[in-house]
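Thought: the user wants the 3D structure for the chain below. I'll pass the sequence to the structure tool as-is, report back what it returns, then summarize two notable features.
Action: structure_tool
Action Input:
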Amino acid sequence: MIKVAAIDLDDTLLCNDGTVTLRTLQTLRAWRAQGNHIIIATGRPRRTVGTVLPLELQDAPLISYNGAEIHINGEKIYDNLISAAATLEIVTRLLDAVPHAEIGLEIDNVLYLNRPSTRARLHTVANLLEIATQPAAKVLVFGDELSGVEAITTSLPPGAQALYSSRYRFLQILAQNVDKAEALRFLLPQWGLTPEQMVAFGDDTNDVEMVRISGLGVAMSNAVPEVLAVADRITTTNEEDGVAIVLEELLGM
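Observation:
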C-alpha cells in the first residue's frame, strides 16, 4: 500500500507562477489526514523553499539540493557534501576554463557567486577561491555557452559528479551518489517504509531515479523525456493539478 508521496517542487507541485492550487492543497490535506506522509524533494536550496511552500506543508521532511541534504523542521538529519579539497579543485578549474560564466557555491544555505547576477535573486558576491575551503552542497555554472566545461565534467575529482539541466540551462556539480532517491533510501526506513510504498512525482532529470525506484513513479506530462521513459504513470501538467489527480485516485476520492 502506498503510504508516502515524494513530490518535486518546480514544474511539479508548483504552478508556473510558484503557487499551489487550492485543489492540490486540499488533496494533500486529505492525504495526510489518512495517516500518509509527504516528502518535498527538490533541487532548490532550503532558503527558497519557504518562500513558495504553503505554511501547512513546511513541517514535511525536506530533501534539498537534489538530495545533498535532508531537514525536518529546520534540523538537518543528513548530508552528502563535496569535500573541501574537491570543491577548491573544481572551482579553481572552472574559473580558469570559463571565466565569463557565472560560477556559484552553495554552502550552509548561502549561494556565493563570482559576480553579480540577475538570474539568482538571493546571493552573495565573493572571491570563490577564499570560500571554496569548506564542503559544498553544490558547485553551479550558469550560462548559455558551457562548452568550456566539458573537459572538467569528464574528469572531476573523486567523490564528485555532474548533472546538467537542459530545461534551466545550468550545470550542477554534486557529491558522488547525491540523488533524491538516495536521500529517500535514508529517510524511508526511519518510518519503517520502503520505496515500494511510495508514489513519486517529478519532471526533470534530477527526478529520474526517484521516479524509477518508487512503487508508483509518476511523470508530469510536462516532464523531460528521461522522466517520461521511467514512469509507471503520466499525469497532467503542473498547471492542471497533476499531483492531485493521482493522489485523489489513491485516496478513492
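Final Answer: Structure generated. The chain has two domains: 4-79+178-251, 84-175. The CA atoms of residues 5 and 100 lie 41 Å apart.
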